[in-house]
Amino acid sequence: MSSEGYRTLINNTYILTGKTIIKGFLFFDNEKIIDIGTEASPEYELAEYVMDYEYKAVALHGFSVATRLSNYPFRGISDYDLNTFTKEEIKEFIQAGLYELILNGITLPIIIDEYPELVAEVLRHFNINGVIVSDTTIKTYPGIQYLFVEDNIIKYKDEKLGEFNKLFCRVNQVNDKCLFLDISDLPTYNLSAISLIANQLGREETFMNLITKAYKVLGIDNGVIDKGAKPDIILYDLRDSLKTLPTKSINSIILRGYPPDQVYLGGDIFFDHGESLVFTRTDLSQIILSDQ
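Above: the chain's sequence. Below: its structure in token form.
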């Protein structure tokens, strides 16, 4: 979807940069966040896409979690057999799972799956720069990152990161040593619901840090909105009464339980106020319910 040189200006918005909130603008293209500040230069108004939120929106860095996609219709269910489905049907499952991940602001999906080749095909088709975790040798593609697991050790670009079981953590295992949050055992991709679980366990702050940590670990950026960061951005429109909250509490917007209103991947807008600009929502009923 990327258009070379396509520039976007999000003006007059709140911006969460780490633990600091500023009022101003974001200016980015398909490669990086070019500028961030309190007052946009007049030349930025010539961008291909300009949105003025009149300080009634908040922009955050996109999130990253790990999950499995081939079993998407069966998330939270143990009684199923994927061997009864064709590869094309499983690709439909993967696409549907990606749809929900990105809808919820997960801009860097990390996929742990027994069908890594099919995952790669879907990622390539939609030009999504995800991460594939594999314990076997598979074909690699530009734009997709790979974590290889050998003898329980995770390798990234020939560098050993550590033990898989210690670096990938379920919500009830979250600690300061985790690098990747694994939600593959949960029935939902809604991060607010997952955050509530972490809150009940007394680990909410660690959880909030963890859902952007992969960006830093993989050398993409620092996991915060800043100059030079990858333009993976999510934005909540506070004009929607479901999401309106006081300025001093704006960093807790994720806990409201609603998907962001805009989701940008690599500077391209994938979701805009409920409209999917890249994906078509997959109808899985013809596959799942056909024999019932």
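Residues 66-216 form one domain.
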